[in-house]
Design goal:
- By secondary structure, the protein is of the alpha/beta class.
- It has two domains: 184 residues, CDP-glycerol glycerophosphotransferase, N-terminal domain (Rossmann fold); 157 residues, Rossmann fold (3-Layer(aba) Sandwich), CATH 3.40.50.12580.
- The protein is 35% helix and 17% strand.
- The protein contains 13 helices and 14 strands.
- Strand 1, helix 2 and strand 2 form a beta-alpha-beta unit.
- Helix 7 crosses helix 8.
- The longest helix is centred in the first third of the chain and has 16 residues.
């Protein structure tokens, strides 16, 4: 009932702001509806800026402020409604709220987040999703004018689970960034270690679990790992108000650039998160840690045959520690290489930006 009243009120605010005219080169960008200017939505904005240097970018944030020349607008707020109503181009990496109504003269690019699915999402997980979210997802799909997928594998996946039958462009938004990060890895490693007081010779294990809608213990206590390792924990944006505990553990959930953390890490531990696919680009050790495999399978289900994925999988912390200590990952290197090749991951498709810019030529002005 409370959500219903809230949606009505916000819909009224949105309706009021519809009287304002759309501004030709104004762009509104959403990274998880209020986080910092980052992720696929940012990468899309930066690519467009190369062709349309005069665009005016606004980003949804926690308050109205200007940081690094980016205009943040508090969301939700009346100002945010005004910016949405007057922006020619919308870009988001998550579903936009149902009460935001798009004008015919506006263009909406959905970049989504993550690369390479493990778990079922959207339509494929409809039985486990909140009904309000399903309504929001269907509404958002109807607003979309263009969907970006990093490759054919992901394009097929998104087509199967989104309520969307429009155009999909295969374009890896983070490809250029990953190349740059790989070439500048020493500087990034130094930056991260200095920020979190990690010694130069110490190694980093990054634990990046995905979101669960059920109660789950995200604590990550590796008791039998060398003291040469520091453990960084990056929680999913959907995990709120969780206090991390444990020895030699640093919570980096507020750090804005996931890719910088991936570059700085020596080992990634995850579960059912697509962050694994991002990490493989850097040719480093990956371990899957799934102590709640049966519960998660029952709740969300998997898009892939999880147990036959080409990674070492553990179902207890002791098993994980043993795998890391014994460098179990090395046994899977050939399987991973074959898996990447067979699915055309990390194929350079940057030329497809021309398709996106061609669509925008009818929307934006130089």
């Amino acid at each position: 009932m409370v959500n219903a009243i809230k949606n009505v009120v916000l819909s009224i605010f949105d309706y009021i702001t519809h009287v304002f005219k759309v501004k030709d080169n104004r762009v509104i960008c959403s990274n998880f509806n209020g986080r910092k200017y980052d992720g696929n939505s940012k990468f899309m904005c930066e690519e467009i800026k190369k062709y349309y240097p005069n665009i005016e970018i606004y980003c949804l944030g926690k308050k109205n402020e200007i940081i690094d020349n980016i205009n943040y607008v508090k969301f939700p707020s009346f100002k945010a409604f005004y910016i949405f109503s007057t922006s020619r181009l919308w870009i988001s990496n998550v579903r936009l709220p149902i009460w935001l109504k798009k004008k015919k003269s506006q263009f909406y690019i959905q970049t989504w987040h993550g690369k390479g699915p493990f778990k079922n999402v959207e339509k494929l997980a409809i039985d486990s999703l909140d009904k309000n979210y399903i309504k929001t997802a269907i509404s958002d799909s109807k607003k979309m004018d263009l969907l970006i997928a990093p490759d054919k594998y992901n394009a097929d996946f998104l087509r199967s689970c989104f309520w969307y039958d429009g155009e999909i462009v295969e374009y890896d938004l983070s490809y250029s960034l990953k190349i740059d990060f790989k070439n500048n890895s020493k500087e990034i490693i130094k930056k991260i270690k200095e920020k979190y007081n990690i010694k130069e010779k110490e190694k980093i294990i990054l634990y990046a679990p995905t979101f669960r809608k059920y109660d789950y213990n995200y604590d990550f206590n590796l008791k039998n790992i060398s003291s040469d390792y520091k453990v960084l924990i990056k929680l999913h944006p959907g995990i709120k108000n969780y206090n991390i505990t444990g020895k030699n553990i640093i919570n980096v959930s507020d750090y804005s650039s996931l890719d910088e953390l991936l570059v700085a890490s020596d080992i990634l531990v995850s579960d059912y998160s697509s962050v694994v696919y991002d990490y493989l680009f850097y040719n480093k050790e990956v371990y899957l840690y799934a102590p709640d495999y049966e519960e998660y399978k029952k709740d969300r289900g998997f898009y892939v045959d999880y147990k036959n994925m080409p990674f070492p999988i553990s179902y207890s912390i002791e098993e994980l520690e043993k795998q890391i200590k014994n460098k179990e990952f090395k046994k899977y290197e050939k399987k991973i290489e074959d898996y990447i090749t067979s699915n055309s991951f990390y194929k350079d498709n940057r030329k497809n930006i021309k398709i996106i810019i061609d669509r925008l030529s009818k929307v934006l002005k130089k």
